[in-house]
Known about the structure:
It is found in: Plastid, Chloroplast. One of its GO terms (biological process) is mitochondrial translation. One of its GO terms (molecular function) is structural constituent of ribosome. It comes from Lemna minor (Common duckweed). The protein is α+β, with helices and mostly antiparallel strands and 78 residues long. The protein has a single domain, classed as CATH 3.30.1320.10. The chain has 2 helices and 5 strands. The chain has helices spanning 50-58, 65-73, and strands spanning 2-11, 14-23, 34-40, 45-48, 62-63. A 5-stranded mixed beta sheet has the order 4-3-2-1-5. Strand 1 and strand 2 (14-23) form a beta hairpin.
Amino acid sequence: xxxxxxxxxxxxxxxxxxxxxxxxxxxxxxxxxxxxxxxxxxxxxxxxxxxxxxxxxxxxxxxxxxxxxxxxxxxxxx
Length: 78
């Protein structure tokens, strides 16, 4: 099963998260299937590759609760 979840990057105390499509059995820093966006909580910016996200959602990928909230804020689910 594939999930859309956050993958931590950046340096200490300055986290930036990539939104990735990843296998459920992989760890947080594991190999991802595809990068579909990023989220910067410090600047509160989000970039989303909407066609790729919708493609994964149509194929049955499940977003985590946090990623779902980020997509709601970005008005991806209308």
